[in-house]
């Protein structure tokens, strides 16, 4: 197990939905910020990694398990722990607790290091991950297999300047926003996500047109983000009634 890092966070008005729950894409962004804060505390912030290694961190997968979404104005504790790594992948867990210590959300995330110039995955440097004290493993931990959507409905979006993050590629939370935006308003008001598997396949370029593709079977929704004939991201969400 790795070195833990935690912080308190209050759910703001502008990132709460009509049900007064935190918007899920926002909580993913907050989790990634806390991972970045830990790296900075260890002297391994994004600027240092870019300067010394010409590398940037990229998320490849999330598995999110939700007991309850945090509510507007609620103060929660978010803990992160870099669990393990192998030659190409680093695994990190995020846990969100209420003020009574009850776990609300668990996020298991897979990261890779990408060479900024070639945009290719780079081996994990041992000296870079050593301060996190995570376990080195051989096994590659994989999420579910995603099948191509055959009877999906498609909605078109255009990638804008403010969709991009500091590294110049589409912000991770934007993919989930595109996926959920195509769901019916009444469905989103009546149901809440219970489990989400989200995989990032290929980065979307600025100025592209993307399609958010949806197949729904009861309380299971399957999603794809595609552009220029390629799949960029895939997700499966299990829902439950509020």
UniProtKB/TrEMBL annotation:
InterPro entries reported for this sequence: Acyl-ACP_TE_C, Acyl-ACP_thioesterase_NHD, FATA/B, HotDog_dom_sf
Domain Acyl-ACP thioesterase-like C-terminal: 146-241
Residue stretches making up the Acyl-ACP thioesterase N-terminal hotdog domain: 2-132
Gene Ontology molecular-function annotations: acyl carrier activity; fatty acyl-[ACP] hydrolase activity
Keyword annotations: Fatty acid biosynthesis, Fatty acid metabolism, Hydrolase, Lipid biosynthesis, Lipid metabolism, Transit peptide
A Pfam family assignment: Acyl-ACP_TE
Family: Belongs to the acyl-ACP thioesterase family.
PANTHER family referenced in this protein's UniProt entry, alphabetically: OLEOYL-ACYL CARRIER PROTEIN THIOESTERASE 1, CHLOROPLASTIC
Record's protein name: Putative oleoyl-acyl carrier protein thioesterase
Native source species: Streptococcus mutans SM6
Highest classification ranks of the organism: Bacteria, Bacillati, Bacillota, Bacilli, Lactobacillales
């Amino acid at each position: 197990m790795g070195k833990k890092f935690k912080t308190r966070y209050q759910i703001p008005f502008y990132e709460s939905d009509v049900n007064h729950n935190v918007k899920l894409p926002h909580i993913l962004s907050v989790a990634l910020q806390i991972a970045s804060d830990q790296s900075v505390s260890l002297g391994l912030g994004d600027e240092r990694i870019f300067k010394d290694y010409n590398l940037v961190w990229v998320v490849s997968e999330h598995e999110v398990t939700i007991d309850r979404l945090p509510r507007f104005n609620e103060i929660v504790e978010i803990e992160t722990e870099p669990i393990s790594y192998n030659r190409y992948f680093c695994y990190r867990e995020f846990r969100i607790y209420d003020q009574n210590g009850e776990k609300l959300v668990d996020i298991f995330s897979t990261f890779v290091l990408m060479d900024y110039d070639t945009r290719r995955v780079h081996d994990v440097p041992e000296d870079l991950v050593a301060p996190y004290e995570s376990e080195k493993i051989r096994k590659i931990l994989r999420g579910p297999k995603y099948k191509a959507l055959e009877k999906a409905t498609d909605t078109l979006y255009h990638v804008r300047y403010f969709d991009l993050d500091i590294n110049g590629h589409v912000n991770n939370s934007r993919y989930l926003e595109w996926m959920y935006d195509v769901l019916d308003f009444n469905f989103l008001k009546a149901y809440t996500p219970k489990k989400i598997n989200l995989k990032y396949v290929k980065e979307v370029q600025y100025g592209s047109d993307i399609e958010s593709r949806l197949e729904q079977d009861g309380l299971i929704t399957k999603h794809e983000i595609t552009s220029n004939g390629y799949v960029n991201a895939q997700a499966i969400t299990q829902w439950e009634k509020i």
